[in-house]
Amino acid sequence: MKKLALKIDVDTWRGTREGVPRLMDMLKRHQAGATFLFSLGPDHTGRAIKRVFRPGFLSKVSRTSVVEHYGIRTLLYGTVLPGPDIGKREASLLRGVRDAGFEVGIHCWDHIKWQDYVAGKDAAWTRAEMKKAADRFREIFGENARTHGAAGWQINDAALAYQKELDMLYASDGRGTHAFQPVDAAGQPLGVPQLPTTLPTLDELIGLDGLTSDNVHLHLLKLTEATPETGHVYTLHAELEGMRLMDTFDRLLAGWTRQGYQLVSCVDLFHSLDAAALPKGRVVMGEIPGRSGTLALQA
């Protein structure tokens, strides 16, 4: 059966407490599985203001209402207001996601810090940030995380290698076309298998080429008429599809069901693959349409 994995990035405290419960309800109505990846430390969303100087950032913001999606209060965390500790405040809710039958994993410790800095940091910095998230995950769930999905699709080789040390099963850290085994510059296996996001996100599409929240689902459904041998991975956000874009996501779920997809968690998709036979490839940094800056891509 055709599989489409739903990967849910939870970036903020508001997205955790408001978007996650709404998404769980919707997924249950559609009998869909999903993987929830949590930000487990402080919400410092307000510190993203410095991205205003990045090429392409203002054009993206002008297409998607940041205030509507995130709220004024969230946009002040880490600057005017102290950043709430998401994992400490919402541990019970996070356990409830797992107890409802959904896969849970690590998105990051501090979303803004990871997204803005990891690509240029060394192994010591990277491991320290990942260890904080891994320790908090264990504290909340009583077990080690088996998967990781990098905040902002930002990663480096040290992070990929450390996932293996953390005994993760697979990860979904970048963008690409099919599942693969990362390798280092010498062609040696690096870390765990990757299930890259294969489809564009709503915030990359809305506002371009006449696409709106009312019709963007039709564009995505055209892209999923063809199914890769290793399935699709679609990344959504608790702050978008779990809030103001819920109706759009509802139409997407219904459309994918009509197309014959089984909507599953990332781990379900991973278990349907032969990990030992996956092609090898590098993870490199590059650009994609609709998103500012560079991000991890399947080479």
Explain how this protein is built.
- This is 4-deoxy-4-formamido-L-arabinose-phosphoundecaprenol deformylase.
- Residues 2-264 form the NodB homology domain.
- With 299 residues, the protein is an alpha/beta fold.
- It is 38% helix and 13% strand.
- It has 13 helices and 9 strands.
- The protein has helices at 13-29, 57-63, 66-70, 86-89, 91-99, 111-117, 123-141, 157-165, 202-205, 216-223, 240-244, 246-258, 266-271; strands at residues 3-10, 35-39, 103-108, 181-182, 232-237, 262-264, 280-281, 283-286, 295-298.
- Strands 1, 2, 3, 5 and 6 form a 5-stranded parallel β-sheet that branches. Strands 4-7 form a two-stranded parallel sheet.
- Strand 8 (283-286) and strand 9 (295-298) form a beta hairpin.
- Helix 7 runs parallel beside helix 8 (157-165) and helix 10 packs parallel to helix 12 (246-258).
- The longest helix is centred in the middle third of the chain and has 19 residues, at 123-141.
- It is globular.
- The two termini are 28 Å apart.
Give a quick precis of the structure.
With 299 residues, the protein is an alpha/beta fold. Helix content is 38%, strand content 13%. The protein contains 13 helices and 9 strands.
